[in-house]
Amino acid sequence: EGIEGQVPYRGPTANIIHQLVGGLKAAMGYTGNATLADMQRNSRFLRVTQAGVRESHVHDVDITREAPNYRR
User: Fold this and answer.
1) N or C: which end of the chain has fewer CB within 10 A?
2) What range does the domain containing 17 cover?
3) What angle do CA 34, 41, 15 make, to 5 degrees?
4) Number of C-alpha atoms within 13 angstroms, CB side, residue 66?
5) Residue 60 gets which letter from DSSP?
6) pLDDT of 11-54, one tens digit each?
């Protein structure tokens, strides 16, 4: 908020939107919500600590190829 900047080009916006939609569909499936309205009504945000973020990433495994939507 309140800053202006640039990021390197990473390809068409459609690729990013495809990843976002996939994540949203997965979340809706995990939580048993059939519609976006259900998801809004039944969801709440939880703060995750840095330690939790680190722990939730794959560890003790040699990753041979990073997923396009998964970065450290």
Assistant:
1) N
2) 13-56
3) 55
4) 6
5) S
6) 899 988 999 999 999 999 999 999 999 999 999 889 999 999 88
